[in-house]
Amino acid sequence: MGTEIGRLGGYSFRGTVTAGDGPNQKGGKIGAGYVNLRKQRKRQQRKVGREEEGSSSNRPKLAAFVLALCGTPVTKPMLYLRDNQALLKAVKRWVGEGGKVTLVGVPDADILLEAIEELRKRTTTGAATFLFKVKAHRGEPANEEADIQADKAISGKDVPTEWHAGHIEQFSHGKSLAGKEVR
Predict the structure, then answer these.
(1) How far apart are CA 134 and CA 143, in angstroms?
(2) 29 DSSP assignment
(3) Distance spanning both ends of the chain, measured CA to CA
(4) Global confidence as pTM
(5) What local confidence, expressed as pLDDT, does residue 87 receive?
(6) β-bridge mates for residue 32, sequence order
(7) What average pLDDT does the segment 35-56 reach?
(8) What's the pLDDT score for residue 41?
(9) DSSP secondary structure letter of residue 47
(10) Do the beta carbons of residue 129 and residue 75 sit within 8 Å?
(11) In sequence order, what are the beta bridge partners of 33?
(12) What is the pLDDT of residues 115-171, one digit of tens each?
């Protein structure tokens, strides 16, 4: 493929190639979608709860990432394509050792916690997870398909809603992805 990730060999990645997207609110609703390019182009979408509060632009992006993580076996390497740099920044704080990180006051902590837990499972089994930023709306097939799935989440009548939890106030410490205690 002539796209950036295609030229870099991303579509030939030996593990699972996934892409996710979540547009900002449309008509007061938030949606997330992902596509797995290896598993017969598996697609999934969800409405994302708490839209009545408003949303950070990262909430649907995090939700799409969690869908991809949960849809990929924890023992398989995974390449996740996304068109949002903020997702990488949100997850990066939790990778490795050091730093006093906390979910208290973090926007979208309910979804971020789920992503962290899924990433921890993957690191425990030794499965690599790569996040790669692609350019939005530039014809990247995987990203365009993920965008379609996210739009279907918003417009679909039978699409379930997840992530209704409120802000996470009880987390003042936890573990980094490396398993080290963080306070």
Answers:
(1) 8
(2) B
(3) 46
(4) 0.79
(5) 82
(6) 46
(7) 68
(8) 66
(9) E
(10) no
(11) 21, 45
(12) 989 999 999 999 999 999 887 777 778 888 888 888 888 887 887 777 665 444 444
- At 50, list the tokens: 């708490």
Three-state secondary structure call for residue 182: strand
In 10 A of CB 58, how many CB atoms? 19
Farthest-apart Cα atoms in the chain, separation: 47
Coil, strand or helix: which one is 83?
A: coil
Residue 53, pLDDT score: 52
Residue 124: name the closest of 174, 88, 74, 173 by CA. 74
Question: DSSP label at 15?
Answer: S
Q: Cα–Cα distance between 3 and 32 in angstroms, integer?
A: 23
Say what the pLDDT of residue 107 is.
76
CATH topology of domain 4-182: Nucleotidyltransferase; domain 5 (3.30.420)
pLDDT digits (tens, 9 = 90+) for 65-119: 999 999 999 999 999 998 888 888 888 777 766 666 677 777 788 888 899 899 9
- The dihedral of CA 27, 87, 163, 32: what is its sign? positive
What ranges in 48-140 are assigned the alpha helix state H?
Answer: 58-70, 85-92, 109-125
d(Cα 183, Cα 176) in Å, to the nearest integer? Answer: 10
Residue 64 to residue 44: CA distance in whole angstroms: 9
Where exactly are the structural domains of the chain? Answer: 4-182
167 and 109 Cβ atoms separated by less than 8 Å: yes
- Size of the chain in residues: 183
